[in-house]
Each structure stands twice: as C-alpha cells, then as structure tokens.
Design goal:
heterodimer, A: 420 residues, alpha/beta, 5-stranded parallel beta sheet, two-stranded antiparallel ribbon, 17 helices, B: 150 residues, 6-stranded parallel beta sheet
C-alpha cells in the first residue's frame, strides 16, 4: 500500500515579519543588550564639533592619559547618554589593566533618600566584588574596610545600655562652650566635604588599594543621576562624593541632568575637567545620515521605503529614543492594518501619537513660550516653565553653526497647529 | 484635553503579541473612571489568554495601604504589571519616574491604567516615564464582553 499523501501547507504568520524588527527596535531595551547585539551605530565625531573625536573616544583617551580626571556627559532624556557611557566602557577595556565600574545609581539606591557618600559606598562595594572575582587573596585590611563600608551603608539597629545614651534635651546643657559660626572673608567655591563622606572615601580607597598598587586604570561610569532632573540634588552629589575622589587616580564619567547645561552658575565647567553635551541629532538628511543609519542597523529598510525612513528621522527631532519609538509604533500600526510593509499612513499615525504625547499637559504659558519660539525664534531658558519644556523634550536644543538653538519637537509641532 | 487614538484590550494585546515575548513595552491607557475595573479585568484576561503570561495587578488602594515601594517591588521580576490608578498620587508617580529603569529591567509589559483627567498630571510629573512610553491610548472595555456582562 502506498503511503498516504499529506499536504504540508505553510501557514503565513505575519508576526514573524514584525517580531524580529520590533525586538531590534525596542527603545527601552537594556542598552547593554543592544550593544552586545551590535545594534549601536557609534557616532563619527563629537556632536558639537565635526573635527573632534566622538564623545566616548574623548572620554576614553582622557581616562587613559589623565587618571583621576572627572568628566560630565549632559543631554536630554532619550538623547543617548547611556549608550555613550557603554561605548566608553567598551573602549576602555582595550587595555588589560582597565578596571571599569559601571553603576546605574537608581538600580542600587532610591535617589530620593540617598545621602551624600552613598555613591562612594556603591563604588567601594563594586570594587570589592571585582577583587573577589579576580580570585586572588584579599588582604585583611581590605576586608575590614569593606565590612565597615557595609556597616555605614545600610541601616541597622544597635542595642546600647540606657545609661550610655545622653538625653537630647537642651535643659541639660552644662553651660560649656557652644559653637558660634564666624563668616570668613573668603567664600569657598564648594562646601566642605562632610566627615561621613571622608570616612567612606577612605574606606573606598583602602578597598581600591590592591588595584592601585598594581597600577590599574580605574574608571567609574555613573548613570542614573541625570534622572534626578533637579540640578541642586546633582550638585550635592558632585560637591561631596565626586570631589572626595579628587586626587585619587580614579577617573569618573557621570551622566548629568540637562538643566545643568543651562545653569547660569557655570557649575559644570567650573567643577568638571571635561564636559560633553549631546544635543538633539540633526534630522536633516542633507546634514547627516546618522539617524537613517540607526534605522537601517535595526532592519528598517526591510520593511519600509526611504521616504518613510526620512519621515521617521525628521519627526523624531533627532531624539534617538523617539526615532525608535516612531519606527516601532509605525510597525505596530502596519501589523494592525494586516499589512506586510510599513506605509506612509502608518508612519503618519505614529507621528500623530507621539505628537499628542508631547501635547498632553501644555497650558497657556507653555503655548505662549512655544509661540514665541516659532514666530520670533526667541526662547528664554531661565523661566521654570521653559526649563520644563526642555526637560520634557517638547522643546529641543540643537547645535548649529557654532550656536545652541532651540526648536519645537517636530512631532509636537505637527499636532499643535499654530501655538499662538 | 488631548485625545489619543482609541484601542480595546483585545487590540492592545494583539499588538503586544506581534511584538513578541522578548520586547519590553510600557503603555499609558486612559478610560472613563467607571470603566477602570472592567478594563483592568479585560486586559488581564486578554494578556493571560493571548500571551500566556500571568499579570500582576496592583491598585491605588493597595499602594496607599502598603506603600509605593513594597507594593510595586521595583526589582520584582514579572512578565506583566498592570497598575490601576483612580486618584492622583504624586508620591507614586514621582517614585515611578525615579525608578523607571528598574521597572524596565524587571517587567516586560508595564501598563498604567488611569483616567483621562489624570493623564496630563502624570505626564507633567514624570518626564523619564513619558519619554519611555511605548504609546498612550484611550481604552474602553471590549464591546463583545461588555454586552455579555450587561
């Protein structure tokens, strides 16, 4: 008897068209994963100077040649700061003696409650983990320092005999000396480093000593502090934790809240040895093909034409996360329409949705400022409302022909009509 | 008030299915206050059926009782987290904005379901969250299921 003939019908599954693309596009994927998958398009040059090397190259060279240098990376939300830090981290590893500590502070501490010294404590703990992983014998004094660091870092309860606790009552004051503050003639540039911060710094340096003795190149890359938004909190960390590390030969690269870039006190340039700013990227294809190359690297050219990629680039405003969000949304609209390719209408729908996201919450004061920017090209950066527009990326900062210029996010402009 | 594109729980979860289990998504969904619990039920059911993953569902009243950090457990890994918010809770939104990267790394699908009236305040208070959103939609209960229920 002949075997029964069976038909093997191939079932078409449209998800298989879009899934690989959407997975590569994921705008909130771990930057480290994206780097490992080779989905990053490294910039060719400094975004503010075509003649200068890319930011991660500049940071790496500085850390390699001037140990102990402190560098700041400033940029808006979604501008690619984490990616630059990871590129720096990767490039620094070209030397065998490189010891890099990459810390996203928000992953280890709640920034609302973290005290000065906390960053130093985290760095100390990470360095101790590195020593443990190296497998060599850890000296007792380093173990002791680590133990003390843990004690200082985490809350604990100690039981003391009641007679040893001094009552906290002013009436028991015995009349001895009291502190009287006398203002000096010279105002220090930065406040004094607190005693507890110095204590943590000393423990950190004790933990780092086996690495320092081996002449290792230690670089700490700190992400997450930019999510503090308010510059005052960041300053407090810099003036205490980072300043305590001055002279230690431990280099620092730190992501900084955007608002410090517009701070009149010039704190960034006063404090840091090197400051790099990532403005929104140029969305004009005649000026740069950077955005198109990012879309291509993620596989966009398999699913959409040049004109759709150009629209996505233009309406992203050069905000890298928005570029990926627009491409992803357009793909989801195309899938929802049962289409095998992303068409103009899907890109338009994605732009509308992104624009509305930026439109939400705009009051009359914000609209007035945006109207002045659109009609007169004038945008003050001092008023809190203007700063909120920058933080929320409704207004973007660009660097063109040697000047900082501002523009309304093009997706917002698209849905807003005439703001005036 | 900004009017966003409309979607149903079925349509949203279909888009999630298209993206696949390895894609991270973060949606802000807006609906009428009276529909919140119904939409939350529909969403949880659709996610469990279409994606075959369990949903951790958290309400504002739980957050009030147990505190933000304990309720949301920022680093507690789960495939889908649905937070339903019917009142303005600035402490919760501030914590969400500060801890957004923790949430990204621990949760594949994060949905914040709230009313249209709270949308502007949430977005204004949470720039990091706003920038990471996959999308914002107006959502209503799936009509077919609503008919059966009524």
């Amino acid at each position: 008897m002949e075997p029964e003939q069976t038909s093997s019908t191939i079932v078409f599954d449209r998800r298989q068209i879009y899934r690989p693309f959407l997975e590569r596009l994921n705008p909130i994927a771990s930057a480290r994963t994206v780097l490992e998958q080779d989905l990053i398009v490294p910039p060719d040059h400094d975004p503010r100077d075509l003649e200068q090397p890319p930011i991660h190259v500049a940071f790496t060279r500085a850390a390699e040649l001037n140990r102990g240098t402190q560098m700041a990376l400033v940029g808006g939300i979604g501008s690619g700061k984490t990616t630059e830090l990871l590129l720096t981290d990767k490039l620094l590893k070209r030397h065998a003696d490189a010891v890099n500590v990459f810390v996203d502070i928000s992953e280890v501490a709640d920034l609302r409650e973290t005290n000065a010294g906390a960053i130093l404590a985290v760095i100390g703990m990470r360095l101790f983990s590195r020593l443990q992983k190296q497998g060599s014998e850890i000296p007792d004094d380093v173990k002791t320092a680590h133990g003390k660091l843990l004690q200082l870092s985490y809350p604990s309860t100690e039981w003391w005999p009641i007679e040893s606790v001094e009552p906290d009552d002013e009436e028991d004051d015995d009349g001895s000396d009291v502190a009287v503050r006398r203002p000096g003639l010279m105002k220090p540039r930065f406040p004094p480093i607190r005693r507890e911060v110095t204590e943590v710094r000393d423990l950190l340096l004790a933990i780092a000593s086996p690495l320092s003795k081996g002449d290792a190149q230690i670089t700490v890359l700190i992400d997450g502090l930019d999510r503090l938004i308010q510059p005052e909190r960041f300053r407090e960390f810099a003036e205490q934790d980072l300043r305590a590390l001055r002279g230690s030969k431990i280099s620092i690269v730190v992501a900084v809240p955007l608002l410090l870039w517009f701070d009149k006190s010039e704190f960034l340039h006063d404090y840091f040895d090197m400051v790099k700013h990532i403005p929104a990227a140029s969305a004009d294809p005649d000026e740069s093909d950077f955005l198109r190359r990012i879309l291509e690297r993620r596989g966009a050219s398999d699913l959409m034409d040049e004109s759709e990629m150009a629209d996505i680039s233009k309406y992203s405003g050069g905000v890298l996360r928005d570029l990926l969000t627009l491409a992803r949304s357009a793909a989801e609209y195309a899938y929802g329409d049962d289409q095998d390719r992303i068409g103009r209408q899907h890109v338009r729908s994605a732009i509308q949705q992104l624009g509305k996201r930026y439109l939400a919450g705009l009051g009359s004061t914000e609209r007035h400022l945006i109207g002045r920017l659109v009609h007169d090209g004038y945008f003050p950066t001092d008023p809190p409302v203007a700063r909120a527009l920058l933080v929320h990326r409704q207004v973007l900062e660009y660097f063109r022909d040697g000047d900082d210029v501002f523009a309304v996010h093009p997706a917002l402009a698209e849905v807003m009509g005439d703001p005036a | 008030m900004t009017v966003f594109a409309e979607i149903t729980p079925f349509g949203l979860v279909r888009a999630l299915a298209a993206a696949g289990p390895n894609s991270h998504s973060m949606y802000l969904l807006l609906c009428e206050a009276g529909d919140l619990s119904l939409v939350a039920e529909d969403l949880a059911a659709e996610i469990e059926v279409q994606l075959d993953i369990s949903v951790r569902s958290v309400t504002a009243s739980e957050v009030r009782e147990r505190g933000v950090d304990e309720t949301l457990g920022w680093q507690t890994a789960c495939p889908a987290l649905l937070l339903t918010l019917d009142t303005w809770m600035p402490e919760l939104i501030s914590a969400l904005d500060r801890n957004i990267t923790l949430l990204e790394s621990a949760v594949n699908v994060f949905i914040l379901l709230t009313t249209s009236g709270l949308c502007d305040r949430i977005l204004a208070a949470a720039p990091n969250y706003r920038n990471r959103l996959t999308d914002i939609f107006q959502i209503a209960p799936d009509a077919a299921f609503a008919d059966i229920r009524t």
